[in-house]
Sequence to fold (445 residues):
Amino acid sequence: MALKVSKRLLRVVLLVVSALVIIGLVLHSTNNETASYYVTKTKEAVSSTNSFWNTEAAKKEGRQREEAEKESAEGKHPEDVEMDENAKTLLKDATAEHPEVLGEGVEKEATEKAGDSDSETAGTAVKAAFVSLVRNSDLQEILETVRNLEDRYNSKFNYPYVFLNNEPFDPEFKAAIKNVVSSSVEFGLIPEAHWSYPEWIDKDRAAKVRQTADYIYGDSESYRHMCRYESGFFWRHELMEKYDWYWRVEPSTKLHCNVDYDVFKWMQDNNKMYGFTVSIKEFESTIPTLWSTTKEFITENPNYVAKDNMMGFISNDKGKTYNLCHFWSNFEVASLKFWRSQAYQDYFDHLDKAGGFFYERWGDAPVHSIAASLFLSSDQVHYFPDIGYFHNPYNNCPLDQSIWQKGKCSCEPMWDFSFQPYSCTNEYYDFKKLEKPEGWKKFRE
Ligand SMILES: Nc1nc2c(ncn2[C@@H]2O[C@H](COP(=O)(O)OP(=O)(O)OP(=O)(O)O)[C@@H](O)[C@H]2O)c(=O)[nH]1
Ligand SMILES: [Mg+2]
Fold:
């Protein structure tokens, strides 16, 4: 029986074994403390990788990623697939009447741009908070994450936290969180209307989809409510009303480096609206009609599309097809005003009406990313090479040595995801014509 093993997993195992052999030799000869520290950390990394790879969902995800990585390495993209007639018609209409929609660069007076920022707010105090959607059962994981966030960043800046849940938070949850943070904390219950089926959704159809969907979280109802909530509602929660900016925090994530500047203020002062650390390609099977639904929307609302948009980052053929690139939304530092803009609200309503959050499994990551790429101008989107970050199984670890040292980073740059083929950060650098850090090429050999 042929055993199929992920190339990535093989590479990781080989790397880890070689690292252990080298460290073993060093230990043998010097018995020095640093080497023993690295042995422990390497063992921890191996065991956490193993436990991740042992879950059923992760195995399925592993198989899907393996396929996708293979196709990506072969240069195959979903746009190789023949477009359906409906999409062709849409595209024809859109390019004929509104060339600017598809990134052709035609100037047109916009009635409302989502990314119009208030220049008078630059340099003034920042109304910002961390926001975390979590369950009571996530307590241990979110405690670790928040404590790490405090140590690496917030003990210097004292931004408040908002925790949101579709069920009331336990008193133990609240007490434990308050015990580890330096700033104020609020706990919010999500209104039922924001975490339930809209009346136009056929629940039987949605249930049937869940029975047969063959992708990660395909069978999960709550995951779909979560994605819809993160796409269309967290920024409407009453506890978020007083803020203009947020930093999204997920359980089990980690900052690898110290962040010594006020990130929110930096975003505000530099006219940024959306910041990310990791980008990646989406599983196409979770979003079969997201792009055609998006094209319907921009065809009807060409004025929402920013002139200097990032269509070239999310599409390799000027908008005909989506290349699946998106910002990984488990980390976001972004403007709430963007989601509250008419452009985004109309876009969300259009998607919500189409039903893909339930009939497919549209993720908030591609939804946010497509919106940011189309409704913001390119210079309002920012990649943070200096915010070392981990969400299983990928790392953003600074390749630039001076950034790594300054941030007292604890990650291994060799495990950085940014320039690996399945990431889209390389494409982001190319699109924005940014200078890549030394050593990026070794991830492409
Ligand atoms: N309150 C609440 N939070 C949820 C629920 N499902 C997910 N979340 C939160 O929503 C965020 C995203 O969920 P995750 O399960 O991490 O989804 P993911 O990042 O795509 O997948 P993982 O690889 O499992 O991390 C996390 O902050 C979760 O804690 C839910 O049913 N209720
Ligand atoms: Mg997660």
Remarks:
- Residues 250, 330, 391 surround magnesium ion (ligand 2) (CB under 6 Å).
